[in-house]
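Reviewers of the previous submission asked for a worked example of the structure-prediction workflow described in the proposal, so we include one complete record here. The input consisted solely of the amino acid sequence. No template or homolog information was supplied to the procedure at any stage.
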Amino acid sequence: MTSMEFRYLGNSGLKISEIIFGNWLTHASQVENDVATASVRAALDAGITTFDTADAYANTAAEQVLGDALKDERRASLEIFTKVYWPTGPKGHNDVGLSRKHIMESIDGSLTRLGTDYVDLYQAHRYDSETPLEETMQAFADVVRAGKALYIGVSEWNAEQLRAGHALSKELGFQLISNQPQYSMLWRVIEEEVVPTSRELGISQIVWSPVAQGVLSGKYLPGAELPQGSRATDEKGGADTIKRFLDDEVLTAVQQLKPIADELDLTMAQLALAWVLHNDNIAGAIVGASRPEQVTANAAAAGVKLDDAIIARIDEAIGSVAETDPSKTVSPESRPA
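From that input alone, the workflow returned the following structure tokens.
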């Protein structure tokens, strides 16, 4: 296994760890705070320097847990990312979206909870169809000017939205350098439009769910009962997000990856992460963890190189069960209530 490797994020001088620690479904919701802190320690020990969260995770509590876990670390040695868009706090009529009001209030709340003066990357957690894009990008420009965020990114924006946002960021004098989409062997909707557009604009992908909510780890078997305590049995959010991958045809295809992983002396999850990182437009893959050992194992996927023959075998194994429809890259049509 190799040590942690780093990649530039978009057309910028900022380097991030190939494996990123994320706390979407875990911190302050599925796992106890001491386990969350132990997982952050395991990430640091494995050479992970990049941490991704959002104000909406566990309705702001996940940021607090991450901030507490990182408080004794040298701030300049870390890259801390957070996001704004989904409803937070009491979830009132202005506690959502990408209005100037919500962005300005949210960045201050996030910095307080994270215990830092700035975030390295502040991300629009979805596209907000109810706020003029000019207003959103001007607010982001002001957040950067105020020194509260160093760079700006987005999440799940389609190619057209990325192009419009990038043009405005250039006009306003700041850098839009990243997009955070879902991407894995089973969910490849960004390949046809988002990735080519991003390459052209100097935008990298930071991808979430690279192991397809754990399905690509091989622990879910076709025709078998769902493992107790797994994400698929978690009614607090995990079960909803994983459902689409629990089809027997998909699970059968996934099992065909096992011999490939064995041959390379990788776990199936490590193979899934190495596959995502094979794409040079991906700057990093976000991994979550409900226990420290998972972080250590996942971090070992950094630097693993897959040759073209292996990539071809993976494509053959997964075949037509992968979702590739670019129209599936989509943000809500209206703000969630």
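Residues 184 and 276 are 6 Å apart (CA to CA). We consider this example representative of the routine output the project will generate in years two and three.
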